Amino acid sequence: MFLSSFENKIDKKGRVSVPATFRSHLNSMGYNGFISYPSFNHTALEACSQDRIEKLSNTIDSLNPFEEKRDYFATSVLSESENLQFDTEGRVSISEKLLSHAKIKNNVLFVGLGKTFQIWDPKNFDKFKTLARKKAFQNRSNLKWENKQKGEVL
After folding, report:
1. Residue 129, SS3?
2. Which of 18, 24, 17 shows the shortest CA–CA distance to 1?
3. Which domains does the chain have, with CATH numbers?
4. Other Cβ atoms closer than 10 A to 71
5. What's the whole-number mean pLDDT along residues 106-126?
6. What pLDDT, on a 0 to 100 scale, did the predictor assign at position 105?
7. Which of 3, 22, 139, 145 makes an SS bond possible with 112, Cβ 3.0 to 4.6 Å?
8. Which residues are within 8 A (CB) of 64 and not within 5 positions of it... i.e. 6 or more apart?
9. Which residues, in sequence order, are CB contacts of 23 under 8 Å at separation 6+?
10. Among positive and negative, which fits the CA dihedral 55, 39, 36, 98?
């Protein structure tokens, strides 16, 4: 899983070191990089493994091929996605287009979200994190754990 948050600086050549735990998780799945695309919901980048973007692509493909929604999703996610490969030092080069969407200038914050992660400008994430904690507190009763064996809610 992708857990925790890590801040790294973009070097003069536009490369940033990906957290070792994120690289290790991706490597364990057989990947030497990740897919990134502009977030719909935030001034941030979404990031995931190849199989995750394929699952998203299959979901888009399940829509009616002549429906506008299908084109909107494919254009907004798939055409904007970039395959970022690790170099020998564990760094990736994030395109200017992606950096511009996330308003990232010098530092990058990698934010683990379980099966995916996001890439933020650290100051923008701090503002969002304050809101997220407030909203999570307000909605905490929506989280329920199920006991898989007995079907009970814990």
Report:
1. helix
2. 24
3. 5-140 (3.40.1550.20)
4. 14
5. 97
6. 95
7. 3
8. 70
9. 86, 90
10. positive
Bin 30: left if φ > 0, else alpha if -120 < ψ < 50, else beta.
left
Q: 2: pLDDT confidence band, cut at 50, 70 and 90?
A: very high
pLDDT range class, residue 150, cuts 50, 70, 90: low
**Separation of alpha carbons 50 and 67, rounded Å:** 26
- Cα 63 from chain centre: 23
Confidence (pTM): 0.89
Q: For residue 62, is pLDDT > 60?
A: yes
**Residues 13-50 as b or e (16 or more Cβ within 10 Å = b):** eebbbbbeebbebbeeeebebbbbbbbeeebbbbbbbe
Query: Do residues 35 and 47 touch, judged by C-beta distance below 8 A?
Result: yes
